[in-house]
Amino acid sequence: MLSVPTLWTAYVINFLALGLVWAYVTRSYPKFEAARFWTGSALTAAAGAALAMLRMFVDSLLPLLAAATILIFAACLAAMGVKRFYDRPVSWRGTALITGLSFAGLTFFLVGYDSTAMRVFIYSLGQCLPFALTLRLLLSRQHGRSSPGARLAATVATLIIAIYVIRVAVNLLPVGAGFSFTQFTPSQSALVLVLMFLSMVWNFGCLLMAMDRLRNEVADLALLDDLTGVGNRRHLLQRLTEECARSERSGEPFALLVIDLDGFKAVNDTHGHAAGDSCLQHFTLMAQTRLRPSDMLARTGGDEFCVMLPASTLREGAMIARRILDVCREDAEACVGGDIPIALSIGVAQWSREIGMFPDRLMAAADHALYAAKKDGKNCHAVYDPAPSPEIAAEALPNPALRKRA
Length: 406
Hints:
It is a single chain. The chain is an alpha+beta fold. The chain contains 12 helices and 6 strands. It has a 6-stranded mixed β-sheet with strand order 2-3-1-4-5-6, with helices on both faces. β4 (344-350), α12 and β5 (381-384) form a beta-alpha-beta unit. α3 (62-85) packs antiparallel against α4 and α6 packs antiparallel against α7 (186-221).
């Protein structure tokens, strides 16, 4: 059996390595705040383990007292990292309370009233409490899915808590004499080895959580328009495909708006591309004020936008189009000085059985309505209202009956 001093040395090296890994993650992704706490936790745990090794050279329990307090603080930092990962506020006051009360209790049962069992109880409670407070977050589902890394971290946290509970129970019983960190025994060697392994796995679970989060952020960025922050064409096509499939199964319609800013090229030519970008951003903000939470606004290219309206009829789509036109007209009337008024044309179409599973057909129908709105004088909307039960060819749409609206 390995001696506890040797295992404490391995403990120090293990946490130093983990600290370096988290430090690299922190430097590479400075906005990932959780990594800062996990870096601090690993390095603090290494310092606590190094301090515990002084017990080999001095005949005093004071190094273990200081090491125990530092290790409890490291556990609190780890829990704070989990909270920041889930965008929850962290409380330094709570960390100070857990660490301070643990130190006070350990000191009292070392100096005031010597009790190994009570020291084991207080240290175990100080270690378990931060992990227990993270279990609910680790087991929660984010955006309808749970993270494999979070499940792993939650499982390891539960095992760590169970080990400390067993350790407390054994020390409170007569058969538990000597099962502590004050003497070097085979049981201690096994305990330190198991806890070191679990701490490595817990950090590995957190690393998986970080990788999953960063991968999802990259995937989200691939679906967003850089300038306006709304969905891009790729994201729109994904959502339209999903909505077409859902409507094909249920028969429930949905509507699509195709929007084009009138005279946008002249804005770029006259005022410059920076002014044109500002117009696109301003229009995005105005349009979003007239959309419902379930509606999706996407920029499909240049000055072209689309709005997908789930569970909406053609009439409801036309109503949303009028709202967007009204807010833009009101804004244009309020323009003074160098302000640039925004005008737009909108085509409205509704999904039907004839469109089926092909979102490009729905977009083609809304485009036909948009062209009619442009032809009718711009700054208005038109709806695609085909004849009853038309057969829409795969390559092209028949000439629709278009209704124009101001």
